[in-house]
Design goal:
The protein is α/β, with parallel strands linked by helices. Helices cover 41% and strands 20% of the residues. The protein has 11 helices and 8 strands.
């Protein structure tokens, strides 16, 4: 079993300590994001570092598993939508402006190194959101069984903060993401995957809708739809990550 190094550090953006865990010693830095309501240790507990063990051991990838604050943002159904959107925006800024530079420092990265992001379920949404909004920080993203229609969590995208965190909505607008920069990249810098099995219904619809939205904007995306046996769980996410990580970082 791949062993990780634990960190607990103060976030100025969030006004609280945030935990994360690091696997591997070198290679492309990859920010890993958990499923809805998840924790930084979920990737380890469900065998995701083990799924890419050769890449970690060979120094081709270094995995940084972040915590979520979903209980106070996406899943805080007892608070106003605006408040949920504010917390999601703070989390986005934490990931991209605090944790990302910290990752590069721990990675010993050379100047101008870009991160990757990878996530499952709502973590896939977070990963893709990071990639689309901050392409100067993130070189690419892997979204597995993603839930990209955040209206189910944040409400109507007419609110400016909701719009800023709703890729299906902001891709249809001008000026919210750098489409010219994103259009120049290769197909394999944004990889989306969903299965057709148990509990994958929403993820399958959202993944196809996300792919269509990107394609309509002329942005490269690679979509894979796996079989009817592929369900919404870590067993399959490990298999998908193994395949995609080997393709991108191997």
């Amino acid at each position: 079993m791949i062993q990780g190094t634990y960190y607990k550090e103060w976030s100025r953006m969030l006004g609280r300590d945030m935990e994360f865990k690091v696997y591997g010693h070198a290679g492309t830095p990859v920010l890993a994001l958990p499923a809805r309501g998840g924790r930084f240790y979920d990737w380890e507990n469900n065998g995701m570092p083990d799924a890419i063990a050769p890449l970690l051991n060979e120094g081709k990838v270094q995995l940084f598993c972040a915590d979520s604050i979903d209980a106070g943002s996406l899943l805080a159904g007892d608070t106003a939508p605006r408040r949920r959107a504010e917390m999601q925006e703070k989390y986005f800024n934490y990931l991209t402006s605090e944790l990302a530079p910290r990752i590069l420092t721990l990675n010993g990265a050379k100047k101008d190194t870009l991160l990757w992001a990878a996530g499952v379920d709502t973590g896939a949404y977070q990963a893709v959101n990071c990639r689309l909004r901050r392409p100067e920080v993130f070189a690419g993203a892997i979204g597995l069984s993603g839930l990209y229609d955040v209206s189910r969590f944040l409400g109507n995208a007419a609110d400016d903060l909701v719009l800023r965190n709703a890729p299906l909505a902001y891709l249809a607008e001008d000026g919210l993401v750098d489409k010219k920069l994103l259009a120049k990249v290769e197909e394999n810098t944004l990889l989306l995957c969903a299965g057709q099995g148990s509990y994958e219904g929403d993820a399958l619809v959202d993944t196809q809708t996300m792919t269509d939205a990107l394609t309509d904007c002329g942005l490269p995306v690679h979509l894979e739809v796996w079989g009817s046996d592929v369900s919404h769980d870590w067993y399959w996410w490990g298999k998908e990550l193994n395949l995609f990580a080997a393709r991108v970082f191997g």
